[in-house]
Amino acid sequence: MTMQPKASHYINGRFVDDEQGQPLEVIYPATGEMIARLHAATPNIVELAVEAARAAQDQWARMRPADRGRILRRAADLLRERNDEIARIETMDTGKPMQETTVADPASAAEALEFFGGVVAGYHGEFIDFGGPFAYTRREPLGVCVGIGAWNYPIQGAAWKSAPALAMGNAMVFKPSENTPLTALALAEIYTEAGLPDGLFNVVQGFGQVGAALASHPVVAKVSLTGSVPTGKKVLSLAGSHMKHATMELGGKSPLVIFDDADLENAIGGAMLANFYSTGQICSNGTRVFVQNGIYDRFLDRLTERTKKIVIGDPLDPDTQMGPLINAAQHEKVTGYIDIGKAEGATLHHGGGVPHLQGFEGGFFVEPTIFTGVTDDMRIAREEIFGPVMSVLTFAEESEVIDRANDTEFGLSAGVFTRDLTRAHRVIAEIKAGSCWINHYNLAPAELPFGGFKQSGVGRENSLAALSHYSQLKSVYVETGDVESPY
Ligand code: NAD
């Protein structure tokens, strides 16, 4: 099977390559086979992309926002028309099952393009009345923005960054994760086909140093990264040292709190979504599942029953519910954490092994795993694992669980399951996290801001908040009388 794109990079409306760049092999995580061979960007490629973006941005920014929006909405339609084709590329690139990619990945990208394409025409500055004189504010684009993606949601990441950037009149250079370079190229082709002028969305491939070159490039006005906390710290310092705007969407170790009165099946469904979807490789996952004592036994029995039924295997088979992890390094990391959990004294209640699947011996699979008897100080309850490993903890009191939920350096997400709505709102208000759910988990509609508190990041994606992060305010004072001057 091959997924070789026409070339590695997409600059100024066309595919380009520079074979001097470091080889970048794309691996199908279900088998370990190489499916494409690309090249990381050379300094020359980075310059070409930034220059193409710079040259195109000014005229784009002068267009009427509604006209920019129409192009994005056309691109959303094209994404939807090609949903299954793109989902297949995403499955080969990430190993996520088709059951997920056909409903979640290009679909979420299309939703972002449609939302920002529609809403930008109504996104205005303010009018401020001084009783005669007045002022107004203008929302102006930043210029050339850089997007750097993670590997778990490649096309979604490319769209969540480029849609608000482009809608606001910016140009973008996007660097996908080196693990998943393919679907950003498909998005670039779609933008061109939808009528986006050349140079406004460019894709350059590469490892961390290409990201760093972009994040410190003097022409670049903003960097938006999705990645781990250590990478976020490096990129934020680079951006800061060049006085660039920055959005950081980083990792988490989020709490999911299940009270005795919760609807049991919904709470279990939420906990499974919060730990096993995308093989657990989701930043906002609720990996610390706090279950109140009264519901604990029933919760665990049904959770185990339902987890046993998860179909793990061939990602291209429509019946498969869980695919492999992204690569060998992530597989080693996740199985390493399972060993750490056992060594720390947690009870390996379910899973924890590496399944042997015929025809997929070279894949990076791991079973959905449930640890019980987990305490707050264990590393499996404190560190982001980024795999299908659920830690179940118990609690007695509301105030106790709030303190324990907040006892983390992260603050991306949180969830609460209860039928007592007063309590649900009270608890969520106390939890220090940016993206929260009551009686559901992990939904991220384009209308809702998404992002973290504390180490989980700065800035927000989605919603009008993203438009504000891809623009700068200009204040204009207008005098309607004479200038009073002492001179
Ligand atoms: P990562 O930090 O290893 O890499 C992210 C991106 O940054 C990649 O494109 C990488 O090439 C680039 N990069 C690495 N070093 C760089 C540097 N010095 N300068 C510039 N760019 C650099 O993350 P990952 O392993 O691809 O993704 C997993 C992580 O991402 C997890 O921690 C997860 O929680 C987080 N994540 C967060 C969100 C969110 O929205 N908050 C979403 C998805 C993933």
Estimated structural class? alpha/beta
Q: Mean of the pLDDT scores?
A: 98
Tally the helices: 15
Major pleated sheet? 7 strands, mixed
Bound molecules: nicotinamide-adenine-dinucleotide
Strand content: 15-25%
> What's the shape?
globular
Number of strands: 22
Q: Which residues form runs of ≥5 with pLDDT under 50?
A: none
Describe this structure in words.
- This protein has helices at 43-62, 65-81, 83-94, 98-119, 154-167, 182-194, 208-215, 229-241, 264-276, 296-308, 328-344, 379-382, 398-406, 421-430, 463-469; strands at residues 9-11, 14-16, 23-27, 34-39, 127-129, 134-141, 144-148, 171-175, 201-203, 220-226, 245-249, 255-258, 288-292, 347-350, 369-372, 389-395, 410-411, 413-417, 435-438, 453-454, 457-458, 471-478.
- By secondary structure, the chain is an alpha/beta fold.
- It has a seven-stranded mixed β-sheet, with helices on both faces. A six-stranded mixed β-sheet has the order 9-8-7-10-11-21, sandwiched between helices. Strands 5-6-22 form a three-stranded antiparallel β-sheet.
- Helix 2 packs antiparallel against helix 4 (98-119) and helix 9 (264-276) packs across helix 10.
- The chain binds nicotinamide-adenine-dinucleotide (NAD).
- Nicotinamide-adenine-dinucleotide is lined by residues 148-152, 175, 177-178, 207-208, 211-212, 215, 225-228, 231, 234-235, 249-252, 283, 384, 386, 412, 452, 457.
